[in-house]
């Protein structure tokens, strides 16, 4: 079993907007680079976590988040069940290069359940948000370039 590195614990467990936290760390610099947007059936564990039927389709947005360096700091994946896209969360399907956090934390404090796991690309936090009655998952994997940056910044 992998042990969570000390320098990442606070990032993996932080509440609030990762967008804002990365922007603060990078002295005001932040960029989202969408890589892939597509429809797919909900994965069993994701459907179970959101209490949705597994046969439901979801809209998935995969992107890289950049701070003040050339390499991306975070690999992000957002999973929106179709039912959420028929409500207020439909705005997330059309935000382009804007960060989800810009809308998610605007004058609201969404309910969040979190789990921290190790994936192939690195330590990952998965957050299941309930926002205006909509449930969706935001997954953020902290990449080696981010780990190096925060270790050098100490």
β-sheet strand percentage: 35-45%
> In CATH terms, what is the fold-level topology?
Chorismate lyase
Kindly report how far apart the N and C termini lie.
Answer: 27 Å
The CATH class assignment is Alpha Beta
Number of helices: 6
Radius of gyration over C-alpha positions, nearest whole angstrom: 15 Å
Q: How much helix, percentage-wise, in residues?
A: 25-40%
Quaternary class: single chain
Structural class comes to: alpha+beta
Question: Which spans have pLDDT < 50 for at least 5 consecutive residues?
Answer: none
Please give the domain count: 1
CATH architecture classification? 3-Layer(aba) Sandwich
Question: Would you identify the CATH H-level superfamily?
Answer: Chorismate lyase-like
**What pattern of helices and strands is seen along the backbone?**
HHEHEEHHEEEH
Widest beta sheet: strand line-up: 1-2-3-6-5-4
Mean pLDDT: 90
- How many distinct beta strands? 6
The major beta sheet can be summarized as:
6 strands, antiparallel
Outline:
globular
């Amino acid at each position: 079993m992998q042990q969570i590195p000390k320098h990442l614990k606070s990032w993996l467990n932080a509440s609030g907007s990762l967008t804002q936290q990365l922007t603060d760390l990078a002295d005001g610099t932040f960029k989202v680079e969408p890589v892939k947007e597509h429809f797919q059936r909900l994965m069993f564990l994701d459907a179970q976590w959101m209490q949705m039927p597994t046969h439901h389709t979801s809209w998935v947005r995969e992107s890289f988040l950049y701070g003040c360096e050339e390499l991306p700091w975070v690999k992000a994946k957002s999973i929106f069940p179709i039912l959420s896209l028929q409500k207020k969360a439909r705005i997330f399907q059309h935000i382009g290069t804007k960060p989800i956090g810009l809308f998610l934390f605007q004058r609201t404090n969404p309910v969040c359940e979190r789990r921290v796991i190790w994936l192939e690309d690195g330590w990952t936090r998965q957050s299941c948000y309930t926002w205006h009655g909509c449930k969706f998952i935001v997954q953020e994997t902290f990449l080696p370039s981010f780990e190096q940056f925060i270790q050098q910044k100490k």
